[in-house]
Amino acid sequence: MSQFNIGSKAFTAGEDLEAYRRVKLAAGSGTQVVYADAGEAFIGFTAAKAVAGEMVSVDLKFTGRTFKVTAAGAIAVGGSFYGAADGKVSATVSGSIQGTVLEQAASDGEIIEGLLV
Q1: What distance in Å separates the CA atoms of residue 28 and residue 108, rounded to the nearest whole number?
Q2: 62 burial class (0-12, 13-18, 19+ CB within 10 angstroms)?
Q3: What is the pLDDT of residue 7?
């Protein structure tokens, strides 16, 4: 039976996941998510921390809303962000621009607000 989800959906964590990180569907799966790395497409952001095998809520990506994101280093307010390793975002160009940050990040691991493009 199909479902219709607006905004968020529960998936199984395919690895230990931190909150506010970009995730993608695991290869060959429609129910399991893993980190999206640098340059990779993603389906959304984790809403909470989860251990592999647990259910994790994913805020599905779509434009017109903001998301909490985890920076991989310094990003200036208003700067574009790209995908980085372990689901983080970075000012370093890798693939396509994924969004704009609305707050400054000074260092790795900071949680900031971002807007998708």
Answers
A1: 31
A2: exposed
A3: 86
